[in-house]
TrEMBL record:
CDD domains: DPM1_like (cd06442). Keywords: Glycosyltransferase, Transferase. This is Dolichyl-phosphate beta-D-mannosyltransferase. Residues 6-173 form the Glycosyltransferase 2-like domain.
Length: 243
């Protein structure tokens, strides 16, 4: 059994999901995949079920009744994965904005370089984003810089969604006490790992905006995350933030 599993939350990703799953399973290193689908009306879950006939116990599907937020999808996935003994747990978008080939680089950062959290970073070595309008690039970059300033985390891409966790990190974080369910979930998970003094490294990646399907991201979601950071940091200063 592989020691790594990739959690992919989906909502209306039927145009991408089969190609992504085949890409991950074609890598030189073996990973399992867990798809957490939030009741996609476009048949995403049906496509995954058909692929399960081909890939057997390498591919898992958990269906939720409705779209309930990115953070809750990942927490659902973490809780499903942890009892099954995987050492390295990945979170990854379904739309190919995260290159499947980079899974191996994140894995090696944890396995060979002893990182506890490996982040696929868009901003570690400049701005490595393709197909975004300049306004969106600037907003995302400024949001990450702002979060870094407020939280004091030594992380360039604080809002990144392409991450590998060692299981011990997820075991020590009280997943039921995660406050944010949207975009800010990414920030809160990194901040809690930081407060736990986990070793966090950034692996430079190129982020490519989706070419198929519809983006779920918006400027308002980013700003919601940014404003939530102040409250999160304030609580941590008075030891009121339960990790």
């Amino acid at each position: 059994m592989p020691d790594g599993i990739v959690i992919i939350p989906t909502y209306n990703e039927n145009e991408n999901i089969e190609r992504l799953i085949r890409n991950v399973f074609s890598l030189q290193r073996n990973f399992h995949i867990l798809v957490v689908d939030d009741g996609s009306p476009d048949g995403t879950a049906t496509t995954v079920k058909l692929l399960q006939k081909e890939f057997g116990d390498q591919l898992f599907l958990q269906e939720r009744k409705e779209k309930s937020g990115l953070g809750t999808a990942y927490i659902f996935g973490f809780k499903w994965v942890l009892p099954r003994g995987y050492e390295y747990i990945f979170q990854m978008d379904a739309d190919f904005s995260h290159n499947p080939n980079d899974l191996i680089r994140l894995y090696n950062a944890c396995k060979k370089k002893q990182a506890d959290v490996a982040i696929g970073s868009r901003y570690k070595t400049g701005v490595n984003v393709v197909n975004w309008p300049m306004s969106r690039v600037l907003l995302s970059w400024l949001a990450s810089r702002y979060v870094r300033l407020i939280t004091a985390m030594p992380i360039y891409d604080t809002t990144a969604g392409f991450v590998c966790y060692r299981r011990k990190v997820l075991e020590r974080i009280h997943l039921d006490k995660i406050q944010f369910i949207g975009y800010a979930f990414q920030i809160e998970m990194k901040f809690k790992a930081y407060l736990l003094k986990m070793r966090i490294v950034e692996v430079p990646v190129i982020f490519t905006d989706r070419t198929r399907g519809t983006s779920k991201m918006s400027g308002s979601i980013i700003w919601e995350a940014v404003f939530g950071v102040v409250k999160m940091k304030f609580k941590s200063l008075f030891n009121k933030m339960s990790i």
